[in-house]
């Protein structure tokens, strides 16, 4: 019996016990997802990262955290560039994204039930956050004013930043809009940099 165990075999079934070398990163991710349910878009991001950065034919390489920020001296240019956008929802979205430092996906999926105008608080539910925890963010007078304007033009939509083209949907990804701002303000990756 001890001999079987030493060889890596299960003495009861006679089958080989998986060693750490036999377990793939994808299997570890699958076990993790079974234990800790997370949002579908986060799951897709994890699978994408594994597929893109790890392959059986090449070794894992370090991915450095993004360090993109909008430097103080470029904020004025960025603000002006955002102001030139014809799409009011996109313009307000980018301004809102910058000021409380929220993530792109969290901000796009905000609903009116998350906004407390009376107490000037934004309640970001745990389902929207990467950390899986509710956030309560104070709103400045500028953001309250921006949100009140969005509320007036909501057209019965439940979304704070509703799609202009799709009825009762939130604002889609709009890389071309952020590209316009990036070009005018001479700053790269504006949507990610706004969060930092």
Write the layout of secondary structure elements.
Blueprint: H1 2-6, H2 25-35, H3 40-53, H4 72-83, H5 88-98, H6 104-108, E1 115-116, E2 121-124, E3 135-138, H7 141-152, H8 175-185, H9 190-193
Antiparallel strand pairs: 1-2, 2-3
Helix pairs in contact: 2-3, 4-8
**What's the main sheet like?**
3 strands, antiparallel
* N-C termini distance: 58 Å
Output the structural class: mainly alpha
User: What is the averaged pLDDT score?
Assistant: 76
Number of strands: 3
Succession of helices and strands: HHHHHHEEEHHH
Secondary structure tally, helices: 9
Q: If strands are numbered along the chain, what order do they take across the biggest sheet?
A: 1-2-3
Share of β-strand residues:
5-15%
Query: What's the shape?
Result: elongated
List keywords for this structure.
about 200 residues, mainly alpha, three-stranded antiparallel β-sheet, 3 strands, about 45% helix, elongated
Structural overview:
By secondary structure, this protein is mainly alpha-helical. It is 43% helix and 5% strand. The chain is built from 9 helices and 3 strands, in the order ααααααβββααα. It has a 3-stranded antiparallel sheet, with no helix packed on it. α2 packs antiparallel against α3 and α4 (72-83) crosses α8 (175-185). Residues 188-193 have low confidence and may be disordered.
Short description:
With 196 residues, the chain is mainly α. It contains 9 helices and 3 strands; from the N terminus they run ααααααβββααα.
